[in-house]
């Protein structure tokens, strides 16, 4: 079943509507919080919407105002951009450092260059656009399978020490990867639009579930930390509160007023981390560092690479203006 007088399947159109709603819902949250992982997710969402529209509408000989060659270019171009972004998304969103080369260089050497070069040469020689595209997709299709294998190994390595409760995260990431790793492969075999829509958008649905799940966990973690901070606040009697009230005649002076100097080190640590502008991940690293964790133990606890832990510490040292861990904890607790 198609929509109106186009070749777009109803399934594809349904996914487009759902994804536009998700975009309208997530965009204001990103503009308010400016989270990097949400930014990468929104880019993925926008690219998927563009790919679905191009895949659903083109190529269609009835759309006479757009040359058929341009329609092919729009369809495969949107698919290639989508396929190119997915390794970058997993590299950034899940901090999988083994994907850096593929995300920044490999896709150009084995995806873009072979496709455009071989497709162009074949079309010039044969004047057959379908055969040219088929020939151009051979190397990208093989590379997609190789990339999927590389990504699976990288995910397995990253989650080697994961707790049992996080197995759902691993399985989810595996299944989310499959559709994008095989985009060029299925494009070569010209699978039907509805099947391609179910495949790629199914992968996105899994990514969305993982994204929402992680957001919920982050909110719960923040709430737990707020409860700990609240418990750390000293109990102050009514008389003590009266003694610290600011006289009315000084109410409009813009001078800081010290209300109470009896915060414990844990409370000071949280306040100072906010004062120095540490990110959420940097704060998590500092809290574990304070407990005596090594870099490897911190990495295992946060499911990040040791190199990433070191990078967070380097950034934290620069922000707090210290040279080592001891100075860092001492300065943040005082």
From TrEMBL:
InterPro entries in alphabetical order: Sig_transdc_resp-reg_C-effctor (IPR016032), Tscrpt_reg_LuxR_C (IPR000792), WH-like_DNA-bd_sf (IPR036388)
Keyword Cytoplasm: no
UniProt entry tagged with the keyword Transmembrane helix: yes
Ranges where the HTH luxR-type domain occurs: 272-334
GO biological process terms held by the UniProt record: regulation of DNA-templated transcription
Transmembrane segments: 12-31, 40-58, 64-86, 107-125, 137-155, 167-191
Pfam families, per database record: GerE
Highest taxon in the source lineage: Bacteria
Keywords: DNA-binding, Membrane, Transcription, Transcription regulation, Transmembrane, Transmembrane helix
UniProt GO molecular function: DNA binding
PANTHER family (UniProt xref): DNA-BINDING TRANSCRIPTIONAL ACTIVATOR DEVR_DOSR
Protein name: LuxR family transcriptional regulator
Native source species: Dyadobacter psychrotolerans
Lineage: Bacteria, Pseudomonadati, Bacteroidota, Cytophagia, Cytophagales
């Amino acid at each position: 079943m198609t929509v109106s007088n186009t070749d777009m399947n109803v399934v594809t159109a349904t996914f487009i509507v759902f994804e536009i709603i998700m975009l309208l819902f997530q965009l204001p949250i990103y503009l308010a919080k400016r989270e990097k992982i949400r930014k990468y997710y929104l880019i993925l969402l926008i690219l998927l919407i563009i790919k679905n529209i191009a895949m659903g509408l083109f190529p269609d000989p009835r759309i006479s105002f757009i040359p058929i060659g341009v329609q092919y270019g729009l369809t495969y171009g949107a698919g290639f951009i989508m396929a190119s972004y997915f390794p970058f998304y997993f590299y950034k969103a899940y901090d999988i450092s083994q994907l850096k080369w593929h995300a920044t260089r490999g896709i150009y050497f084995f995806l873009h260059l072979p496709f455009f070069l071989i497709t162009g040469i074949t079309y010039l020689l044969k004047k057959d656009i379908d055969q040219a595209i088929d020939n151009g997709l051979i190397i990208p299709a093989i590379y997609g399978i190789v990339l999927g294998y590389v990504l699976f190994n990288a995910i397995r390595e990253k989650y080697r020490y994961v707790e049992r409760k996080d197995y759902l995260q691993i399985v989810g990431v595996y299944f989310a990867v499959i559709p994008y790793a095989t985009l060029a492969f299925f494009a070569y075999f010209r699978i039907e639009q509805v099947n391609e829509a179910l495949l790629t958008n199914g992968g996105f649905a899994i990514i969305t579930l993982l994204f929402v799940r992680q957001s919920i966990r982050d909110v719960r973690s923040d709430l737990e930390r707020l409860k700990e901070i609240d418990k750390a606040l000293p109990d102050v009697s009514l008389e003590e509160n009266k003694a610290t009230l600011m006289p009315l005649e000084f109410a409009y002076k813009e001078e800081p007023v010290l209300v109470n100097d009896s915060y414990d080190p844990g409370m000071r640590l949280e306040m100072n981390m906010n004062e120095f502008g540490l990110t959420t991940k940097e704060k998590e690293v500092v809290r574990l560092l304070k407990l005596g964790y090594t870099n490897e133990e911190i990495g295992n606890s946060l499911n990040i690479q040791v190199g990433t832990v070191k990078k967070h510490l380097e950034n934290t040292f620069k922000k707090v203006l210290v040279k080592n861990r001891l100075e860092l904890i001492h300065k943040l607790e005082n």
